[in-house]
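A.,

Following up on our hallway conversation. Structure tokens first:
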């Protein structure tokens, strides 16, 4: 690596957060959500570290994401949460041991049209009230009837799978409605499955014990980020797994009144020193953070961004910091610069902050 811009992923933090999920649901198996490049943390690296920590399975958005991990030859199997997007993906999933989620009747029809040899395992998506993907309670009877009528290869129906819409606010009564609907569906249709149902996400795992099922699906909590509006990661005993690091590659001495960067958007109020770091919006650093003087740390000391962020570069304040070329700059992450705080500053959610980090930024394993 030559350009000093990298994301460090802590193996111990991931293992610790997985243990938190297991303590909350000690009898469940864990299917970790590593879709969207593991929420920006790096799917290949995170999958490897979680496999070492003993996770049971992975949840991804598509067969394409699952196939990107195929060469790693990890023990945990992948589940494509949206199921196949064409009939041709079904034999591929069976051949490589990927699990599928069936969420519409076209996918059920593809199972009857396709041919495969290896056993294929599937979940059936029940729409418990989010109304995004899945079958209604009335449609489930038709789904199971069509599957019993015959498909193109050996098939094992693991169980029902659903998703909670408001688990991040666990006091919301809509959670109880969805949980009740899901359990009713499992009672009615569970005998047609292996009983390996799956409902809770990170928030439900930590705050809705009634939602626990044989499979739990943590995502955000694995990365040490709080899934609950009213609780911090530290409150939940979660450890941030990501730390985004760069270095100073130039130092500029400004006089009082000098303008800085594109658009001359920041004017120095006095003589000062400014550092230039090798990170910009092309790496996923939001352009607004410079104008908002978002916090960073230079050589471990508090500092902040300045002016407009460029595609590959950004400015940091060096007032009172004896820093020079080659000195480290922590851009984001860790307990010092939580992704949640950055998300709040930008009026978004921590999921988006992580997934914005570009693929060109290397992800590196650290203890």
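Then the amino acids I'd put at each of the 367 positions:
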């Amino acid at each position: 690596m030559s350009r000093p811009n990298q994301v460090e992923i802590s193996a111990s933090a991931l293992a610790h957060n997985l243990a938190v999920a297991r303590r909350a649901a000690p009898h469940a198996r864990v299917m970790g959500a590593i879709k969207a490049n593991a929420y920006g943390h790096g799917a290949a690296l995170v999958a490897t570290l979680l496999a070492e920590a003993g996770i049971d399975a992975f949840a991804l958005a598509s067969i394409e994401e699952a196939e990107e991990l195929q060469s790693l030859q990890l023990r945990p199997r992948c589940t494509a949460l949206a199921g196949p997007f064409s009939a041709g993906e079904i034999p591929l999933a069976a051949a490589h041991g990927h699990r599928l989620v069936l969420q519409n009747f076209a996918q059920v029809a593809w199972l009857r049209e396709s041919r495969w040899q290896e056993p294929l395992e599937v979940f059936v998506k029940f729409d418990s009230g989010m109304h995004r993907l899945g079958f209604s309670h009335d449609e489930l009877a038709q789904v199971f009837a069509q599957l019993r009528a015959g498909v193109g290869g050996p098939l094992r129906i693991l169980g029902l799978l659903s998703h909670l819409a408001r688990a991040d606010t666990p006091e919301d009564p809509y959670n109880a409605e969805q949980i009740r609907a899901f359990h009713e569906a499992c009672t009615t249709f569970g005998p047609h499955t292996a009983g390996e149902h799956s409902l809770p996400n990170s928030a439900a795992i930590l705050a809705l014990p009634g939602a626990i099922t044989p499979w739990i699906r943590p995502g955000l909590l694995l990365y040490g980020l709080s899934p609950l509006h009213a609780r911090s990661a530290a409150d939940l005993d979660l450890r941030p797994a990501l730390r985004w690091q760069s270095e100073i590659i130039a130092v500029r001495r400004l006089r009082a009144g000098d303008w800085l960067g594109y658009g001359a958007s920041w004017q120095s109020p006095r003589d000062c020193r400014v550092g230039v770091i090798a990170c910009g919006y092309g790496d996923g650093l939001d352009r607004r953070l410079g104008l908002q003087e978002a916090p960073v740390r230079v050589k471990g000391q508090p500092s902040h961004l300045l002016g407009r962020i460029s595609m590959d570069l950004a400015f940091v304040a060096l007032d009172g910091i004896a820093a020079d070329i080659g000195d480290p700059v922590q851009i984001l992450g860790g307990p010092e610069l939580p992704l949640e705080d950055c998300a709040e500053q930008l009026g978004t959610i921590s999921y988006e902050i992580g997934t914005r980090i570009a693929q060109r930024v290397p992800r590196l394993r650290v203890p």
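The mean pLDDT is 97. Curious whether your intuition agrees with the design.

B.
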